Fold this protein.
Amino acid sequence: GTRMHCGAFLVQCCYQATATSSCLFLSGAAQNYLVLKLAAGVGVEVEQPFVTWTLAALAPCIVCFVGTPLLVHMLLPPTQRSTPEAPRAAASTLQLMGAPQDQEKIFGGVILGMVVLWASASTTGLQPVVAAFLGISVLFLTGVLTWEECAQNSKAWSTYASFASLVSLAAALTRVGVTKWLASSVASRVASAGLYG
């Protein structure tokens, strides 16, 4: 088929960039908060988690952003390296879409506001879950989002249930001491292997 012209290369690069950018920011994926919660369960409290997370992930993510296209180019070399019609097609599609609607502007503003609230959580003391509920509430109140649309998103509800179960399980394991025992066992083995301090 035509996928090797440049489609396979572009799809892989976009897919990997999405995964990398989800790792870069604390608010990029639900599992990032789960990791933070699990760390807190074993006594690792992170000051300014949004900033700390981003700074810790920055170098690996830059390597991935730069290295992924090079690696994909070697594994899936595109046969077509120039697509002069792509900018014209994009401009035409944007023109057909027209100017952003009010609901799209509200949605963009809410997302931006939530990111600001998450980023400043350590300063304001506002929990990320409160910021998320504030954002969803604004979307409901303005009519950008309806309950029917939420109810139809079964994958989101499955993710929510899975993470709720994992957080509950993590709390139970911490309460009975399994998490602390496992962390100390791994730490002692890492130290005895000379891999840390």
